[in-house]
Amino acid sequence: MRGVWGVAEVRAAEAPLLAAGVPLMARAAAGLARRCAGMLPRVYGARVLLLVGSGDNGGDALFAGALLARRGAQVSALLLGSPLPTGAGGAGVVGVRVHEAGLAAFRAAGGRVVTSPGRPDLVVDGIVGIGASGPLRVELPELPDVPVVAVDLPSGVDADTGHVPGRALRADVTVTFGGLKPGLVVGEGARYVGQVEVVDIGLTLPPTDLNIADMADICAHWPRSRSYDDKYTRGVVGVAAGSRRYPGAGVLAVAGASAGPTGYIRYAGAGAHAVRDRHPHVVVTDRVSDAGRVQAWVVGPGLSLDSPAQADLRTAIAERVPMCLDADALTLVSTHPDWLAGREEPLVLTPHDGEYERLAGAPPGPDRVAAARGLAKAMDATVLLKGPRTVIAAPDGTAFVNPTGTRALATAGTGDVLAGLLGSLLAGGVEPTWAAVCAAYVHGLAGQHAARGGPVTASDVAGALREVVAEVLSYG
Ligand SMILES: NC(=O)C1=CN([C@@H]2O[C@H](COP(=O)(O)OP(=O)(O)OC[C@H]3O[C@@H](n4cnc5c(N)ncnc54)[C@H](O)[C@@H]3O)[C@@H](O)[C@H]2O)[C@@H](O)CC1
Ligand SMILES: [K+]
């Protein structure tokens, strides 16, 4: 598991070290220069352009530039900081705000201040880092199409949320200091970072409630069948999904559930024929009330909003077992929140942005982690907020960003597969937040596997789940 820390936490961890005179910037610059050097075929003679803002982010770039210049690179710096008042500073002071010690070291190493980008082999973005606020306020020159290394984070990305309120610089590599920040892993920001390298500068960061799970975590939380298990003891999952109009949603949700840890699936709904044809191992009925006992219900994909759907949802809620509510079930409970009143059993909600807005009364907005946490608290449920970087939040504020997935998953029916898989994990006894984390992770990997073969359908994703689950089970 990898932690993610907000700006305030990073600053608090830096403060005592800075007070003690620990050379954090020198450490940051050394890590940055090392990575830049690794991206150049040869450091000697390579042309490196630094984009330098007025704060310490620019300082990092200048000190790293000095290190590269000392190894024979031709390093130039475009100073993009805010203008100084006329006459400010003394002789030799450039007309913009800049990290002075960094600039002195840069010049002493042979670096040159320039006014146009020239033809660099590598660009280093040191315009702003964690001290930025609001949209990027610099005149950016036209840059050549060469690799870009972002210092700490791509300028223009909000470090705490991943929001990109204006223009931002797209990086091929981001070298970040001390620990991951939310802006590097979630929201739009995650699309700007390229590969992320964390450079250890000696910070001691506190335990965090925002994390990224990895394969080892998924493996640790995925139920294993025991030697004495039969089809019932592995858990029975109920799937109430699909309608006359959308029978495929039932088929896909059951396909997702079939890849999970449960040994038995009961399907209830208007897609019973289609489900039985495609999944003969499933016990089908038309209504939830006829389905029999289950250890968890998945309700919602393609369910419709009509009165049989409403009745099925209410029957499933009344069974008082763990539940995953998706799609139409979310729309129904958003207009009938009282239906969930008094429930204490685990509940997972899996909204996309539109469903989120219906439930929360407002769209998620730019801070998707805060949005998921807010809804989780308000509804006393685990919330899996779908997106290019899905966020999972528990009512107590614990949150995860899912690192797997592909844009290819943005296709009809993949959410049905996810909901089915999640329900199977709930029925298998996994606590709700880890059930959501595991389902999102495995589903995302299945999307990646399926996308290797070209355009992806939800059936391809469901088909790829098995090999990913096999990977999970054999991991470590
Ligand atoms: N504080 C520390 O101990 C360390 C800081 N480090 C570096 O320092 C950075 C933070 O430095 P600072 O606090 O000086 O802040 P930044 O350098 O990130 O940015 C602040 C400067 O940018 C300007 N600015 C703010 N918002 C802007 C916007 N939207 N558009 C254009 N300019 C804007 C401000 O006027 C200020 O001059 C980190 O991201 C990291 O790169 C590293 O050297 C590691 C150690
Ligand atoms: K930057």
From TrEMBL:
It catalyses: (6S)-NADPHX + ADP = AMP + phosphate + NADPH + H(+); (6R)-NADHX = (6S)-NADHX; (6R)-NADPHX = (6S)-NADPHX; (6S)-NADHX + ADP = AMP + phosphate + NADH + H(+). Its cofactor is Mg(2+); K(+). Residues 214-472 form the YjeF C-terminal domain. (6S)-NADPHX binds at residues 56-60, 129-135, 152, 249, 302, 352, 416. PROSITE patterns: YJEF_C_2, YJEF_C_3, YJEF_N. InterPro entries: Carbohydrate_kinase_pred_CS, CARKD, Nnr, Ribokinase-like, YjeF_N_dom, YjeF_N_dom_sf. Its EC number is 4.2.1.136, 5.1.99.6. The keyword Nucleotide-binding applies. The keyword Transport does not apply. Catalyzes the epimerization of the S- and R-forms of NAD(P)HX, a damaged form of NAD(P)H that is a result of enzymatic or heat-dependent hydration. This is a prerequisite for the S-specific NAD(P)H-hydrate dehydratase to allow the repair of both epimers of NAD(P)HX. Homotetramer. This is Bifunctional NAD(P)H-hydrate repair enzyme.
